[in-house]
Every structure is written in C-alpha cells, then in structure tokens.
Amino acid sequence: MITQPPSSRQIQFLFTIALASLLVLGTARLVLDNLKKSQSSFLQLLLGNAHQVLRLPVNISNEDVIDDGCNVFEGNWVWDNTTYPFYTEDRCPFLVKQVTCQRNGRRDSLYQNWRWQPNYCNLPRFNALKLLEVLRDKRLMFVGDSIQRGMFESMVCLVQSVLPDGEKSLKRIPPRKIFTAKEYNASIEYFWAPFIVDSTSDNATNHTVLKRLVKLDSIAKHGKQWEGVDIFVFESYIWWMYKPLINATFGSPHNVQEYKVATAYRLALETWANWIETRVNPHNQKVYFMSMSPTHLWSWEWKHGSEGNCFNESHPIHGSYWGTGSNLEIMEIVRDVLEQLKIDVTLLNITQLSEFRKDGHTSVYGERRGKLLTREQRSDPNNFADCIHWCLPGVPDTWNEILYAHILKNYQSKSNKLGPSS
Ligand SMILES: *[C@@H]1O[C@H](CO)[C@@H](O)[C@H](O)[C@H]1NC(C)=O
Ligand SMILES: *[C@@H]1O[C@H](CO)[C@@H](O)[C@H](O)[C@H]1NC(C)=O
Ligand SMILES: *[C@@H]1O[C@H](CO)[C@@H](O)[C@H](O)[C@H]1NC(C)=O
Ligand SMILES: *[C@@H]1O[C@H](CO)[C@@H](O)[C@H](O)[C@H]1NC(C)=O
Ligand SMILES: *[C@@H]1O[C@H](CO)[C@@H](O)[C@H](O)[C@H]1NC(C)=O
Ligand SMILES: *[C@@H]1O[C@H](CO)[C@@H](O)[C@H](O)[C@H]1NC(C)=O
Ligand SMILES: *[C@@H]1O[C@H](CO)[C@@H](O)[C@H](O)[C@H]1NC(C)=O
Ligand SMILES: *[C@@H]1O[C@H](CO)[C@@H](O)[C@H](O)[C@H]1NC(C)=O
C-alpha cells in the first residue's frame, strides 16, 4: 500500500497526542511558579518617579490609534532590532518559565526582533503609561486557554516596567491570575476557561485533557466571576480541535452526546453571545475576541518534502501562507456569531500575521507536564517540540500592540462623544 500524504482535512485533528501532553499541565504552573522578585534596579531608578506626575487626562493623539480604514492585519514582518523586543526575559519578573525560551536554552534570539508592519499604515507604538491611564479604576480580563495566558503575560510584561516595585503585584487565585497596578487601581487579569463555556476542564490547576466534557449551553459558572470587568478579551480554539468529535451536553446535563466539533463550537459561541448580549453594557464595557492562534506542527506545509515541525526555525515565512491547523470552518462560525451579535464585539484577527511566525514557538525550550524538557527530550524535537505556544518576548506582544491601539481608540471615541469639556 502506498502511503499518501494525509489530506488537510484529516490533518487538522492530529494535534492531539502532542497537544494532550502539552495542555494537561495547562495551568499547573498557576500555583507552581514562584514569582521571581528580582527587578532591574536600573530601571527602577529610571522610572521610579514617573508615576507621580501622570495624573493628567490621557493625551491620545493620532499616532496612538490605528488610521481609520487601515486593516492592520494585512502586512509583513520586518527586521527591527532597534525597537524590538520591548522587554527582555530578565526585565520581566512575572514571566513563567514555560515561555522564557532564552533561559531555557534557545540560542537564537532573532524571533524577538521582528516588527509587524501593516501594508498601509503603522502600528501605534505601545505606551504603557497611556494604557495605564486608560485603565485607571478598571479591570481588563483575558479569558481563554494557555495561549491566552501567554497574551496575558505579554501584556503584564509590556506594562509592568513603568511601575516601581511596591506599585505592582501578581496574585494567583485559580482560575484567575491578577496583576494589579496599585496607584492606578487597575488590574490586568487572566481567567482560565479553555472552552469559554463551562466544562469539566475548568479546574485551572488540575484538568484532564483526555476526558473532556463541554457544557454547551452553560456559561453561568464563569459568567458569575466576570461581573465588573470593564474590558474583555476572549479566545478559545485549540481545546476543541482534539478529535473530529467532542463529548458535550446541551439541555439535560445527563445527556452526554458526541458532537461534531464545528457544531459544538457554534452552540458554545451562541451561548457566549447570549451572555454578552444580556450581561454586557456596551456603554461602559468593551469586548474583544481573538481569532485562532496558529500552530506549526508540520514543516512540510512550508518546506516541501521536509518531515519536521517548528523546531530549528529561525525566520518568519514570507509570501502567502495559511496552515491547515487554522480551521476555516471555525473561522466562519466566529464571523457569523460576531455579525449577529447586537453588541459590537471587535474581532482581533491575528491568525494570518501569526501564521508567518513558524520561528516564534517555544519548541523544545519550554515545558511538558509542568517541567522543562530534559536534555534527552530536547534532542528529540519530533516528539517533544511545542509548536503551539509562543516564546516571550515574541508574537503575543504584537497581538497586544494591536489590542492597545484598539483600546486607546475606543477610549478616544468615547471621550469625543462626551464632548470637549470632559
Ligand atoms: C498631546 O500629544 C501631542 C503629540 O504627542 C502633543 O503635540 C500635544 O501637545 C499633547 N497635548 C497635550 C495637551 O499635552
Ligand atoms: C541589528 O541588525 C543588523 C542587521 O542584521 C546588524 O548589522 C546589527 O549588528 C544588529 N544590531 C544589534 C544591536 O544586534
Ligand atoms: C477601584 O476600581 C474599582 C473597579 O475596578 C472600583 O469599583 C473602585 O471604586 C475603585 N476604587 C477607588 C478607590 O477608586
Ligand atoms: C486531579 O483530579 C483528579 C480527578 O478529577 C484526581 O484523581 C487527581 O488526584 C487530582 N490531582 C491532584 C494533583 O490533585
Ligand atoms: C482543583 O484541583 C485542585 C487539585 O486537585 C484542588 O485542590 C482544588 O480544590 C480544585 N478546585 C476546584 C475549584 O475544584
Ligand atoms: C465520549 O465519551 C465516551 C465515554 O466516556 C468515550 O467512550 C468516547 O470516546 C468519548 N468521545 C470522544 C470523542 O472523546
Ligand atoms: C538547525 O538549522 C541549522 C541551520 O539552519 C543546521 O545547521 C542544523 O543542522 C539544524 N539542526 C537540526 C537538529 O536540524
Ligand atoms: C480573518 O482573516 C483571514 C485572512 O487573514 C480571513 O480569511 C478570515 O475570514 C478572517 N476572519 C474573520 C472572522 O473575519
């Protein structure tokens, strides 16, 4: 029998075995990680007093927001080792060891030096002080799986350097992580909810990946804990993509059935949409939804005839590319559900720009089952590379630059509506 290359339809559910062992630990580190206390005293000297002079209204200029009509999701990665990275592993004491690829042995650091350049405009430069002013007395919450946790950590790193010690803290209260900027009374939070809706995988410190059961019509348990949040950033994808079918309930909690993933995903997103419509006040709350984060599990997709994965990749892909791991049917469902929502939810469609970044994953410089890979495991990238999660600093910083620009724009348009006197 001739073995044929698997078609993309079959492929997209092969995530799986590798995935299972990666996700199992999902948030074991929520409690396991020791928060490192070290903080650059140089930076502190430099910025120690900065916060005291910043009680002005936020001055948002046109350079801080995305030009009207510009699609920031179309563009390419350009080399920029003068402004990137925004921070280093050593300068951000809040990073967990899953993402500190340099410290974990990665030799090349080129992946930190690419700037996303939209085709017809520039991304505003991230300004932590402006963001903190906008977030004064507010809560920003990232909801989702471990990919979303990476985005949360990136945001914390982007913001924390302007705050002196004593003015910032990170608490772990599973399923939440809460970063607080004291003087601003602002919090940046993460909420573990891999399916967004309620499921049996919701224990942030001990969830099974293999036996998963999603409660497609139930979001109340999570929703209760989302009250009072001002800005939401939702994400959910990879946990659905384990097999073509997924066990779930809808209606009776005792009637477990196998659903097609797309069917289940749509039902769950509709449950979520209904929660948004009934619980979110669009006048003082804002909701963002992240499109799927791509994976780079099969190098034959970008390098014909090869048999590896993202391991040893050091450069972005140039030219058009879309991996089979980013399921277009799911993408359509996201589009449909967001279009039908009566409240304006902003989609941050980061899939394409991240597709190019086969070089950005943790590969063998991350963890498995809550532990850094051993030397033997590292030398076996075909079995042990993680081509799902991202190194930090890295690709999620760009997602946050885009989110930043949207948050400032939203703030600006709200202030304009209130008139010049406010
Ligand atoms: C706001 O910022 C712009 C550009 O950064 C600057 O030209 C302007 O003077 C600032 N306005 C105020 C009121 O600080
Ligand atoms: C930045 O990149 C350029 C071009 O690759 C290189 O010549 C230069 O040495 C780099 N600078 C730093 C600080 O790494
Ligand atoms: C701090 O922010 C919360 C909202 O996140 C608000 O309810 C509270 O009133 C604020 N505290 C002060 C002292 O302004
Ligand atoms: C995790 O939960 C499972 C059952 O849900 C239990 O058997 C196991 O002992 C738990 N593990 C820990 C570390 O508590
Ligand atoms: C989650 O699992 C841990 C470890 O098994 C357990 O100690 C904790 O009580 C669980 N949390 C909830 C909310 O059930
Ligand atoms: C659904 O659950 C049943 C019973 O635990 C199990 O046999 C089956 O493999 C599960 N289906 C999927 C798609 O995981
Ligand atoms: C990694 O890539 C470099 C050059 O790009 C090559 O020399 C090396 O053999 C590769 N290592 C592995 C293990 O494939
Ligand atoms: C996101 O962008 C991709 C192209 O980059 C497009 O194919 C897809 O339809 C977009 N998704 C949505 C929901 O608009």
TrEMBL record:
<dbReference type="Pfam" id="PF13839">
    <property type="entry name" value="PC-Esterase"/>
</dbReference>
<comment type="similarity">
    <text>Belongs to the PC-esterase family. TBL subfamily.</text>
</comment>
<dbReference type="GO" id="GO:0005794">
    <property type="term" value="C:Golgi apparatus"/>
</dbReference>
<dbReference type="InterPro" id="IPR029962">
    <property type="entry name" value="TBL"/>
</dbReference>
<keyword id="KW-0472">Membrane</keyword>
<keyword id="KW-1133">Transmembrane helix</keyword>
<keyword id="KW-0735">Signal-anchor</keyword>
<dbReference type="GO" id="GO:1990538">
    <property type="term" value="F:xylan O-acetyltransferase activity"/>
</dbReference>
<keyword id="KW-0812">Transmembrane</keyword>
<dbReference type="InterPro" id="IPR026057">
    <property type="entry name" value="TBL_C"/>
</dbReference>
<dbReference type="InterPro" id="IPR025846">
    <property type="entry name" value="TBL_N"/>
</dbReference>
<protein>
    <submittedName>
        <fullName>Protein trichome birefringence-like</fullName>
    </submittedName>
</protein>
<feature type="domain" description="Trichome birefringence-like N-terminal">
    <location>
        <begin position="69"/>
        <end position="122"/>
    </location>
</feature>
<dbReference type="Pfam" id="PF14416">
    <property type="entry name" value="PMR5N"/>
</dbReference>
<dbReference type="GO" id="GO:0045492">
    <property type="term" value="P:xylan biosynthetic process"/>
</dbReference>
<feature type="domain" description="Trichome birefringence-like C-terminal">
    <location>
        <begin position="123"/>
        <end position="405"/>
    </location>
</feature>
<dbReference type="GO" id="GO:0016020">
    <property type="term" value="C:membrane"/>
</dbReference>
